[in-house]
Specification:
- The N and C termini lie far apart (about 45 Å).
- Strands 2-1-5-6-10-9 form a six-stranded mixed β-sheet.
- It is an alpha/beta fold and about 325 residues long.
């Protein structure tokens, strides 16, 4: 049988769609992975859409999608993406896979293939047993139903996405973008992911631990925000920054600034600063040969030990291991 994928040198992504699929979730996978290119402009991914049975697949709108490939694509994929479907099936009603879906999942190479879900696609991963004993998320509106069907899964409905190594889950439609950018960043670094995000005009990075939604979605009317302080801080990440300094940029008290910052950004100023510093450190590790202690200084962590701690907390790796992943092993140790 001929291969479903035409470019064996690229990372192969199969998007498994079902009746009731959301066109936005299918489109985001093709759009974001399709924008990821190497420094020489070569595509880094090949994405194909597959279904349980090739042919017409209904969406949740007034259009349908003609899918050329069946579940055989799953056997060749390096990454499988399972979007949500608004037509309820066995995973969402009974907590199990139907025969066709079970047969499709049996084709996935395990271990060896990374599997990720968008929104309620997490029900499928849980029904396949991929989330037992693991942390996962899904749309917050489906959290109670998910817990009832899959008590062995450690559900966290208050985050954008979870990463358990070879199995990842995201919360809702937009957080699927965050998850896909996270995958691109893991595969090819923050520079490539940043270019993809810029091309799609979306935020380059929202941490997976960020809340799915802000409890006060409509803040009280006001004449100022924290935008200028954030822009100012981004040009001074290598320096010590205090809440008082940030608040002063907006002529606010520290208490008011902290409250409004959390309303607008969804996290505390300290956490936001740490994330921006981790991103800068990653870019420096990817793009320069600077020693780790100098990377730490320019990213605002002060010492190599502090950088190691924060990078391990954020990504689970040391600076030297991160650099080797994206730049090869013939670089100065750090």
């Amino acid at each position: 049988m001929a291969s479903v994928f035409a470019h064996p040198d690229r990372h192969r992504v199969a998007v498994l769609v079902r009746h009731g699929m959301l066109p936005f979730e299918l489109g985001m996978a093709h759009r974001l992975f399709g924008r990821a290119v190497s420094a020489s402009g070569e595509p880094l991914y090949e994405v194909v859409t597959c279904a349980l049975v090739p042919g017409e697949v209904r969406t949740d709108s007034d259009v349908s999608v003609n899918v050329a490939h069946g579940p055989e694509a799953l056997a060749e994929a390096d990454t499988v993406i399972v979007p949500a479907a608004n037509e309820k099936d066995e995973p969402q009603t009974e907590g199990r896979l139907g025969p066709a879906l079970a047969g499709a999942f049996a084709r996935i190479r395990r271990p060896g293939t990374r599997v990720a879900s968008i929104c309620t696609g997490a029900f499928v991963l849980a029904a396949a047993g991929l989330l037992d004993g693991r942390r996962a998320t899904t749309h917050w509106q489906a959290a109670d139903q998910f817990r009832a069907l899959f008590p062995s899964v450690e559900l966290d409905p208050d985050v954008l996405y979870t990463d358990e190594g070879d199995v990842l889950t995201s919360a809702g439609d937009a957080s699927g973008i965050d998850l896909l950018l996270h995958l691109i960043r893991l595969d090819h670094g923050s520079a490539v992911a940043g270019e993809v995000a810029r091309g799609a005009v979306v935020a380059p990075h929202r941490d997976g631990g960020q809340a799915q939604f802000i409890r006060r979605p409509v803040p009280a009317p006001r004449g100022s925000s924290t935008t200028q302080a954030r822009a100012w801080a981004l040009t001074r990440l290598d320096r010590p920054l205090t809440l008082a300094e940030l608040a002063a940029r907006e002529s606010m008290s520290v208490r008011t600034f902290s409250r409004r910052f959390r309303e607008e950004v969804g996290m505390t100023p300290v956490r936001w600063l740490t994330q921006r510093r981790v991103e800068r450190a990653c870019r420096l590790l990817e793009e320069t040969d600077l020693p780790v202690d100098q990377v730490a200084a320019e990213a605002g962590f002060g010492t190599a030990a502090s950088l190691r701690m924060h990078l391990r907390d954020a990504l689970g790796v040391s600076p030297s291991a991160y650099r080797r992943t994206f730049r090869g092993g013939s670089l100065p140790p750090g």
